[in-house]
Amino acid sequence: MGEPVPIAVLQMCSGVDPNANLAFIEEQVKAAAKKGARYVLTPEMSVLFAENRDMLTARSEPFENNGAVRRLSDLAKDAGLYLHLGSMAIALPDGRFANRSMLFSPDGALAATYDKIHLFDANLPGQQAYRESATYAGGEQAVMATTSLFGLGFSICYDMRFGALYRALAEAGAQVIAVPAAFTVPTGQAHWEVLLRARAIETGCFIVAAAQGGLHENGRSTYGHSLVVAPWGEIIAQADGDAPGLIFAQIDLDAIDAARQRVPALANARSFAQPGRG
Which residue numbers delimit the CN hydrolase domain (predicted)? Predict the structure, then answer.
């Protein structure tokens, strides 16, 4: 039996000033380190929660020589832990952006990156069509990083609705899957907890979900309720509402094998022919 791994999850109400958001992250990560956390996850769009595309363009940088990336690298090294930036917008050459998650090692090295695969394109009843793909370029590669703590699978927000991604991460060796997010209040109330618990149960992984919460400077409201779910589906840590702050949990890797032995869904999975049209 191994020792449980202490982790922290940061809930934020990110604004439109990257420097202010980064200062808050620095303060909270240092506080988490003092309490013994060895891994900290922040929400989706932690560095800038822009009001519109013009603001996104004006305040986002390319990946190369990115000032926020350098600052986060230094923070991980100073705190001596794995710092997982849930995501930030990265300017791309074609005028769009990548919604990119980044993992920094305790020595400050950039250990892995992941670009959000699933983009929300929808025709909403009574509203103008929403096209996330007009602003963001979707990623094409699932990412599982091997760390000294655990196998870490990457996802971002809307990805959680696509169970095949989570199964692929678990089959690749993920023991913990991160879900940084910025859920709206109505969808959060309806789907946040049940989807995250389902992803934990079906994969036998720990699900670590860091959320944006509250009324933001850009006028949006997000749901909050960051949480950590164990492989059997029970919530072992949860933010009480949408206020910014840290929650802490212990990741007991022995619970993964125990859950997968009780319900060996990964081992029992079979390929099958697609349904025909009758």
Answer: 5-253
